[in-house]
């Protein structure tokens, strides 16, 4: 069974020295956002290599992997889903998209989202109705809210900024640091393509923004302009 082979190959690469580092980096302690997550301590390339080897396994097996307790197994499953999405016809793309959004509780750390959401959710919605993103943005789930923001990265790459700004507005008052970082990052990406669009948004909201969100958003600004925003002088 491919599921067992994938899990065994990942487990064989286990690096105990890195597990403690990952536990801290991905905040797996009690009460932290990654509480209870388990790691093998693998590199991104190691996971990618195993996922590539098994990229043609059945979707039902991918779903089993996605529900695994080990972080790297879930990441491998998500990388396989990205492959299946990119290589699939319209029917398979919809299948992958549906599986992704029906299983967000297993896509439960920022790296799992950041590596895969733009390529699946963002791409699928690029030429479709995007109402689902607004539902996700108003979810009680930290991960669904981050998915809503990261999906817009695909739109930004296609120079479509409206949904990024609207979802950023919804998430302005969110209290989680991971949302502050995601929103600030996407605003920065908008600015990388059109500074005027980003600044129109910032001038309206920068005084209401959490500090981390603002810092991420203005990271690439000239230092003199960055300081004006930080000092509230705009």
Automatic annotation (TrEMBL):
Name used for this protein in its record: DNA alkylation repair protein
Pfam families hit by this protein: DNA_alkylation (PF08713)
InterPro entries in UniProt: ARM-type_fold, DNA_alkylation
């Amino acid at each position: 069974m491919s599921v067992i082979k994938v899990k065994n190959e990942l487990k064989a690469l286990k690096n105990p020295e890195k597990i403690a580092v990952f536990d801290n980096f991905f905040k797996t302690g009690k009460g932290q956002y990654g509480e209870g997550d388990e790691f093998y301590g693998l590199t991104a390339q190691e996971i990618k290599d195993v996922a590539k080897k098994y990229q043609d396994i059945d979707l039902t097996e991918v779903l089993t992997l996605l529900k695994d307790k080990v972080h790297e197994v879930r990441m491998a499953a998500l990388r396989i889903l990205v492959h299946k999405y990119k290589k699939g016809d319209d029917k398979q793309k919809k299948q992958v998209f549906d599986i992704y959004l029906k299983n967000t509780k297993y896509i439960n750390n920022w790296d799992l989202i950041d590596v895969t959401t733009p390529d699946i959710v963002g791409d699928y919605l690029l030429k479709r109705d995007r109402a689902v993103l607004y539902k996700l943005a108003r979810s009680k789930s930290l991960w669904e809210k981050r998915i809503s923001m990261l999906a817009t990265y695909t739109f930004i790459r296609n120079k479509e900024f409206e949904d990024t700004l609207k979802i950023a507005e919804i998430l302005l008052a969110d209290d989680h640091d991971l949302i502050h970082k995601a929103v600030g990052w996407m605003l920065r990406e908008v600015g990388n393509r059109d500074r005027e669009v980003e600044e129109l948004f910032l001038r309206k909201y920068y005084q209401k923004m959490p500090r981390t969100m603002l810092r991420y958003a203005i990271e690439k600004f000239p230092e003199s302009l960055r300081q004006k925003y930080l000092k509230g002088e705009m």
